[in-house]
């Protein structure tokens, strides 16, 4: 008998990307194609474990024949299409988006934000000091994680991870409208009184540090947080028999936070409260 492959190979889609013919598996996005080709396209709201939300619009590219710029994170590659990633129009759009985001929110802990602002010559200061949207103190109401909404860009990734895409807890959602829009618990109740189960999967997908481990928050405040001095070791969670993979982030022989590999077939980057936060017993003295 002929063995049937578990995963049938996908057909290839051929199109033109910045003047070169490329082939990607059917169903891949323009962003997938760009990354496969080694092209660095900025993105904030895109996550490899979530359905694209098209919220930040930093990854826009120009598709020949299209009236508007297309978000590369969600636009599927189509046969024969012509895509330009570095046109003046696309660069200007990214510049304006970065200016708007950096003028209204704190991007100091957003990976590569400062690099992109410099690359696209964005000038957030031109909107003035009154552009800040939230200007509120971080919410520290539990010992596990901190919510700093001054850093929130409303990408909705945490809402999706807490909701139907992963956890199905629905502890948080978008509240308010316009300039008053924000991430909130139901009826704006304290987190400790909400449906939150403290799995921390919202922290895993947050691209800006608006949600962070309490340990990381405290170390940043003390000036001791140093990712360059941290090592990462992937192991198996010992709490139950599911076999979730944990990545331990260690600094000065102390576990400072726990994540999970996004390509792991068991967890896909997600963990429960024990796996993500239950590591203190390892370093009890």
Output the number of helix runs: 7
Widest sheet: strand order? 2-1-5-3-4
Q: Please provide the ordered H/E string of secondary-structure elements.
A: EEHEEEHHEHEEHEHEEEH
β-strand percent reads 15-25%
Question: So what's the overall shape?
Answer: globular
Unreliable segments of 5+ consecutive residues: none
User: How far is it from the N-terminal to the C-terminal residue, by CA?
Assistant: 60 Å
**Multimeric organization:** single chain
Radius of gyration: 21 Å
**Helix content class:** 10-25%
Q: From the helix content, strand content and strand pairing, which structural class follows?
A: alpha+beta
How would you characterize the largest beta sheet?
A: 5 strands, mixed
Number of strands: 12
Name the average pLDDT.
Answer: 90
List the helices and strands and how they pair.
Layout: E1 12-17, E2 20-25, H1 30-36, E3 60-63, E4 70-71, E5 82-84, H2 88-104, H3 113-119, E6 145-147, H4 157-162, E7 172-175, E8 182-185, H5 201-205, E9 211-213, H6 214-222, E10 231-236, E11 245-251, E12 254-259, H7 273-277
Parallel strand pairs: 1-5
Antiparallel strand pairs: 1-2, 3-4, 3-5, 6-9, 7-8, 10-11, 11-12
